[in-house]
UniProtKB/TrEMBL annotation:
It comes from Flavobacterium seoulense. This is Membrane protein. It holds the Pfam family SIMPL. InterPro entries: 26kDa_periplasmic_antigen, SIMPL/DUF541. One of its GO terms (biological process) is DNA damage response. Gene3D superfamilies: Protein of unknown function (DUF541), domain 1 (3.30.110.170), Protein of unknown function (DUF541), domain 2 (3.30.70.2970). PANTHER family: PERIPLASMIC IMMUNOGENIC PROTEIN, SLR1258 PROTEIN. It comes from the Bacteria.
Length: 231
């Protein structure tokens, strides 16, 4: 019996040594890629707000202004797919001091402007047709997917360069990547809260030639974490 136990113990020890995991030298680094582009389109969120004492009348006034806005968009040859109604509300508001109910109607339209040369004309037209609130304007790139791809490649190059910098003093070389993690956050362009001039204000500057749009640049960023095998 003792011989059997000793024999089994020797076999277990032999198998255990044979199954030891070989340590592979590796390095973990992060990389970042940034692409700066000039936006070529904008998304405008515009609202018509109407208040009054009779719900039916308030809704009709609001609908009439929205109808005029939609006709403007068609006149400017914007594609039907580039504008849509985002929100529609008709709410009673009770004044406890006056003991009176009034009504507030709002409709919000989201408009994509693919030609920024039309931006000023569109904004002026929206105000003329009854838009009394520009909620925000977001400048974007129509080639977002292409720029994101470029940013990812730059992030990988950055990670590899960092790894090579670290191990160069050790006389080692960077070989294959064994794991790659994408740490990129979703791209959310920041809105620009628009301030627009009324027609009365424009009349004070007749003949003036002013640029009203400064789109600047947007930055598209990619982040990765990479584990490389070392030689």
């Amino acid at each position: 019996m003792k011989r059997v136990i000793v024999f089994l113990s020797v076999m277990f020890m032999t198998l255990s040594y044979g199954q030891e995991i070989k340590q592979v030298p590796q390095i973990s680094v992060s990389g970042e890629g940034k692409v700066k582009v000039i936006p070529d389109q904008a998304t405008i969120s515009a609202t018509v707000e109407t208040k009054g004492n009779v719900a039916k009348d308030v809704k009709k006034q609001n609908d009439d202004k929205i109808d005029a806005v939609l006709k403007l968009l068609k006149k400017m040859n914007l594609a039907p797919a580039d504008y849509r109604t985002q929100r529609v509300n008709l709410n009673p508001q009770y004044d406890y001091e006056k003991k009176k109910t009034t009504y507030n109607a709002t409709q919000t339209i989201e408009i994509i402007v693919r030609d920024l040369n039309k931006y000023d004309e569109l904004m002026e037209g929206l105000v003329n047709q009854g838009i009394n609130r520009i909620d925000n304007v977001v400048f974007q790139s129509s080639k977002l997917a292409q720029h994101e791809s470029e940013a990812r490649k730059l992030a990988m190059k950055d990670a590899k360069q960092k790894a090579e910098d670290y191990v160069s003093v050790l006389g080692q070389k960077v070989k294959n990547a064994i794991t790659i993690s994408d740490n990129t956050q979703s791209y959310n362009p920041q809105p620009v809260y628009a301030r627009f001039k009324t027609m009365a204000m424009e009349s004070d500057a007749v003949g003036a030639s002013n640029e009203t749009l400064a789109v600047g640049e947007i930055t598209i960023t990619a982040n990765v974490s990479v584990n490389f095998i070392l030689e």
